[in-house]
Each structure stands twice: as C-alpha cells, then as structure tokens.
Amino acid sequence: MENLKDRRRGEVTPSISSERAIMTPKVHLLFLPLLFTVATGEGLQDKKGPFENTALDVPEATPVPYPIHQFELKHTVTEFRLSGEGSDDVKMSVDGWLFLQHPLNWARNDHYIIGVEALDGSTVVEGPIYVTINVLDINNHAPVFNSSEYTAVVLENSPAGVPFTRVFASDLDDPASPNARLKYSLVNQIPNKHHTAMFQINADTGAISTTPEGAQLLKAREGIQYSRGEDQSLEALKTKFDHFCSPLQNIPYEQNPFFSCVERAEIRRRTINPLEDPDYTLIVRVQDLGGESENALTGSAYVNVIVKQNLWVNPGPVTIKEHLKKSYPLSIAKVESNDANALYRLVQKERSALNFPFSISVDGDIQLTQELDREDKDGYILVVFAEDQYGNQLDPPMEIPGDRGGREDNEPQCELEENVFEIQEDELVGTKTHNDNSYKA
Ligand SMILES: [Ca+2]
Ligand SMILES: [Ca+2]
Predict the structure, then answer these.
(1) Distances (CA, A) of 153 to 12, 164, 218, 306, 348
(2) 23-40: per-residue pLDDT in tens?
(3) pTM (2 d.p.)
(4) Is there a domain that residue 228 lies in?
(5) Which ligand is nearest to the CA of 140?
(6) Region (Disordered) spans which residues (predicted)?
(7) 86 vs 29: CA distance, rounded Å
(8) pLDDT tier at 272, thresholds 50, 70, 90
(9) Number of the ligand closest to the Cα of 298
(10) What is the distance in A from the centroid of ligand 1 to the CA of 179?
C-alpha cells in the first residue's frame, strides 16, 4: 500500500519533498505558484477563475502543499478569512491561490463547504463566496476480511455449488467506485491431493461450496458406525471389536494394539478440535479494483474446513413395474439419518385422494405395500422426513423426484432418467443411486 501511495505522490510531485523540507512558511507562500508549476507540470491557467462560488474536485491523500485553484480578484487584498468545516486544511495566499495544507481523507468526509472573504486590512472587499471541495477517492485502503480465520463444516455429498459457508471482506474506499469493488478467490487448498480442487468460491459473494469433484470425493474421517439406540460407550466398542476380530485371543483389550489403535482413533474423532485439526485449510484472497488490475490491493484469510459424515444420502431413482408379483411389503430403498435416533416419516409430495402404497420402517426402509397399477397413477414423488420426537427436523427433507408420466411426449434422456425416482409398470427392476451403490430387488 505504501508503495502505491509513494508512486502516486511521485506522479504529482516528483521533486517537491526536499525543497519543502528547507522552506520557511513565508518563502513557501511567496513561491507557491512557481512551486506548483514545477510540482504538477500542468497548466495552472486551467485552475484559475473569478472570485465566486466554485466547486472543485480534489483527490484525497495528495502531498501538500497542493494547489487547488487561483481566484482572480478585482481589489487589493491583504488577507483572506476562511470559515466552515475543513477550513483548517486549506489556506489562501494573498495572490488568490487556494491550496491544501493537509491531505484530505475521503473516508472522513467526501466534501467540504468553505466560506471565503477577501479583506483589505480589516474591511471585507469581496465575498463571502462558498467553495465546495469534493474529495475524490483514491484506492488507498486494502480490503480486509472480517475474520482472519474462519471455521466451517461441510457434509459429505454436499451438492456442488451450494454454499456451506461464506467469507466477507470490507474496504474503506468509496463503495461506488472500483476502489472498493471486491473479488474473492481461492488461492490454495491444503492438502491438495492429486491437485483436485474440492472447493470453489463465488468471486462476488464470497460463498464457498464444493466443486463437482468435492461433492463426490470429500469423505469424513473413518469412524465406527452405530445403529439406532446403540450404546456408544467404550465397553460397546469392545463388543464390536470382538464381533469383527474373532477368534478371540486371551489378550486384555488395553494390551491389544489393534483395539487400542481403534479406541484412540474413535476418541480422537469424538473430541476433534476443528481449529487445531481441520480436514482442509483454504487460503482465500480478496482484491479490490474488481480483481482486474495488478495495482489491486489485497487481503487474505484462512478457512478451516471439517468434513462431516453424511449418512442422509438420497437413494436416487427406483423403477418398479406394475403388477409385480412379490410378497408385500417390499423394500425398495433405504435412507439413514445422521441422527441414529431419528424418527422417519414418508409422505407423498402431491396431495392426492388416492391410496399411497408406501411406508417407511423405523430403520429407514422404504417399502411398497402393494402391487402398483399404472391405471391408478403413473408416478409418485416421495418426501422423507427425519425428525426427533417433537417433530423437529434432524436432516433436511429428502425429496425423491418422480416421473409423472407423459414420457412418450418427452425425448428420452438417460442422464435425466437416472435422476428420477420413478415407480411404474410391470416389475421392480432395481434402483440406482448417485453414489453408485446399487440395490437389487
Ligand atoms: Ca480499496
Ligand atoms: Ca480512499
């Protein structure tokens, strides 16, 4: 930032600083016009005008003294009297030059109105006039994130492009100008296995979501799976261990390196401190000037991401043919809440007076309760809720979309059909899920 400022100063006054340092205020005023010409290299004629109400644009943070405008007076003037807010920052020389004594700051005030009277001795000979100084913003503030470190949790299988967290930065420059037009970007992802970007950031909003790869590949740390109401104590872990690691040897659990390894991993997983041990750390950057200039000022922050196991996965499309001769109820799909004690509820999305031949078991088994007949209805949309005993949702309702007929009118598209939970005609042929697990009837 300092470099930019220095460079900007250089543009305006390439050689003023040493001269300014040795000058007394009196000499300083005497040589102002000459000094200004040297300093700015611009035609000062352009800055002249009659002694009348005038509006002037002045960039903020200019080096001083900065010549603003020379007023041409009709009378002999011995001094000027200035009034109003900001009048301490400007001065008039006896030859009518209005100049800045102190650099202006847009963030403090974007304009000043200063009254000026011309005096001969103690008599006002001209004025008062009112000079409006409009402060022009320059890009002298870098954008800053509202936190240097963020923490976020992302569920496995989070859909690509749907934000799971957001970062935010602000910039003290003029929000109506490019100086505060911010762009976010993702600089780095740690770890960056196989150079696959798992996350993306919306350049305009700072919203962070998974990429299609992330939606597919992000996995929570492995842990023990517990079923509904199952004891999750370390004693229960011993029982599980016996179950998976028989035949048993006569070794105490505590001395069994395999058991103690699993035990440590399980305890660590339960007491994980995301800040100290995130699954991913993202480095995000914000740039002003719309991110389109190499002169843009930047800010950065860390985003710690914890990947959380997500069991609540849409089982995907099911195709069932009508008049299927099976014993009912027939399992056709299974869902599992992230809360082992969830109560499941299954409804039909579109209210219908007709029979709804589906049910869901306490374990999340979606069952067909009778043969389907396309004459009755050619498609269903099922909505599954996972709730606690008070009816509060534990996972977002899962909508399993269905084809409501009319397929003959639509051009068949395999990709689309794979996303459709379709229950119709003749026979249950199986279900496909978007995580490639398959269900066989
Ligand atoms: Ca800025
Ligand atoms: Ca500024």
Answers:
(1) 50, 7, 12, 5, 31
(2) 434 444 445 555 554 445
(3) 0.66
(4) no
(5) 2
(6) 393-412
(7) 20
(8) low
(9) 1
(10) 4
